[in-house]
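## retry 2 of 3
previous attempt timed out at serialization; input unchanged, resubmitting
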Amino acid sequence: MTFFADHFSGHARDYARYRPDYPQALFEFLTSLAPERARAWDCATGSGQAALGLAGQFESVVATDASLYQISSAAPHRRVRYAVATGEEAPLGDGSVALVAAAQALHWFDRARFWEEARRVLVPGGVVAVWSYHGFHISPEIEAIVDRFYNDIVGPYWPPERAIVERGYGALEFPFERVKPPPLRMEKIWDLPAVIGYLRTWSATQRYEAALRRDPLALIREELRAAWGPPRRHRTFRWDLDLLVGRRS
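## retry succeeded, writing output
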């Protein structure tokens, strides 16, 4: 199997628990573009967040990830078949899916090979959709603390591919007929322990811990608690989705 940079297997269970879900409107929009609803491929599924959303729209979903640990932590669904595979080598026949999706993952791929593989497995007129998100909106005080954590504390430990997410996918090469998506947002209602869990899933947090043998969250935990209030208080987080969509001719 093609080599891949594995930044998430060590925290696969936390990834499944603390990553935000994608909005229903996203999957409805993508389904409206697809030429049929027989099968979709969710590439680099992680713990299955996008696969579950697609399963509500398609008769079957093949959800792949290069990490066995991620696949083992993925949420089961009767319409989803999980498999270990990279984004460049799908266990799918030619012209066998109506939609190829990659959520928060394109920046890890060999994009030229992934585009080729997507074209191979898509039916004529099939849809490719890749999306990402970063940062979040909640309150200026909490955002300032997390921004400092992101940039100043774990900033040097972000893999270089992260810069693609920060710049946005819109400027990337995209060998498909582009479709303009509507503006879409993700929302999640979390208490403080859940937010700490989310920050711990970041690849930069994990790389900091591995390199320095200490927890970077200890540097902001008290400050974050003071800004948050009662730890079990729930707050609404919002992320803007950066969505790139196209059709195979």
